[in-house]
From TrEMBL:
Lineage per the UniProt record: Bacteria, Bacillati, Actinomycetota, Actinomycetes, Micrococcales
Name the UniProt record assigns to this protein: SDR family NAD(P)-dependent oxidoreductase
Alphabetized UniProt keyword annotations: Oxidoreductase
Species of the source: Microbacterium alkaliflavum
SUPFAM superfamilies (UniProt xref): NAD(P)-binding Rossmann-fold domains
Enzyme class of the recorded protein, top EC level: oxidoreductase
GO molecular function terms listed in the Swiss-Prot or TrEMBL record: oxidoreductase activity
One Pfam family hit: adh_short
EC numbers on record: 1.1.1.-
InterPro entries named in the record: NAD(P)-bd_dom_sf, Sc_DH/Rdtase_CS, SDR_DHRS6-like, SDR_fam
Annotated family: Belongs to the short-chain dehydrogenases/reductases (SDR) family.
Superkingdom of source: Bacteria
Keyword DNA-binding: no
Length: 265
């Protein structure tokens, strides 16, 4: 995270000897696969045998993923807010799509409602909500055809409370929860599960600058207490891949807090 909040940091754990091979023969689309939670999710899926369709705005990041990780990665550098993006991603993935991880997202500048610009509102909603809906909508017919599929959306602690970000991001992440539950209601009976994870602070490349003096005053003291240690992206990848996998075959419509216990406080 790109801001100076009083978080503590957790020790890195690289031992992957315990991982299973739950995705052999599966194709999974991961957005935001160039960095942070999306990259860790792509890596975990590849380790477990998936063919990964890796989508990101920044093509260099995808090139690094392809160079540094073993396994079948199909790199799709594009902006998921482009109107043609979803159709292109599904085209590249091919007819069999087993999983979709909607991870790409952007923060706001912690703007309170009275300080929100149209540009910030529109961009945050476009990336965090509209693009997620469009890609899910494009993937669903392929999953429904085979009556099999799992979709995982990345929400946030900001979808669980009003004090974790500015108004645009908070609104967008509450929308992710509603989108997840509605999609689960409609399609779980047809074999497609839809869940979300709600991370607390995670050590990634996401930028989260404070652009508002009032937000600093109002939220600053709240951040001094209760917020747990910063998670590693791999800890989020473990939860996302669990929800994508058949291990979670009876889980749908859930918003899983992966936040070191923050939501319970
Ligand atoms: N890091 C945290 O503390 C935290 C906490 C809660 C939720 N989240 C959520 O986790 C998700 C992943 O964030 P992260 O922390 O790994 O951030 P990150 O910035 O490290 O990675 C996000 C990736 O998404 C890509 N991306 C952004 N906009 C895009 C677009 N329009 N089209 C295609 N790709 C795009 C970026 O290029 C980047 O590589 C986001 O939805 C974020 O809201 C993060």
């Amino acid at each position: 995270m790109g801001h100076d909040l009083p978080f503590t940091w957790r020790k890195r754990e690289d031992d992957m000897s315990h991982v299973a091979h739950r995705f052999t023969g599966s194709t999974v689309i991961v957005t935001g696969a160039g960095s942070g939670i999306g990259r860790a999710t792509a890596e975990r899926l590849l380790t477990e045998g998936a063919r990964v369709v890796a989508v990101d705005l920044v093509s260099d990041r995808l090139s690094r993923l392809v160079e540094e990780v073993e396994g079948e990665v199909i790199s799709v550098p594009l902006d998921i807010t482009e109107p043609t993006a979803a159709a292109h991603i599904v085209d590249v993935a091919g007819a069999r799509i087993d999983g979709l991880a909607n991870v790409a997202g952007i923060m706001d500048g912690f703007e309170p409602t009275a300080e929100v610009s149209d540009a910030t509102w529109e961009r945050v909603m476009a990336v965090n909500v509209t693009a997620m809906m469009r890609l899910t909508r494009a993937v669903l017919p392929h999953m429904l055809e085979r009556e099999h599929g799992s979709i995982v959306n990345v929400g946030s602690e900001a979808g669980q409370r009003g004090s974790a970000a500015g108004t645009p991001y908070t609104t967008s992440k509450h929308a992710v929860n509603g989108f997840t539950r509605s999609t689960a209601v409609f399609y779980t009976p047809k074999g497609v599960r839809c869940n979300a994870v709600a991370p607390g602070p995670v050590a990634t490349g996401i930028e989260a600058p404070f652009h508002s003096e009032w937000a600093q005053q109002r939220l600053g003291p709240l951040f001094q207490t209760n917020i747990p240690a910063v998670a590693r992206p791999e800890e989020l990848a473990a939860a996302i891949t669990w929800l994508l996998s058949e291990d979670a075959s009876n889980v749908s419509g859930a918003v899983l807090s992966v936040d070191g216990g923050w939501a319970a406080i």
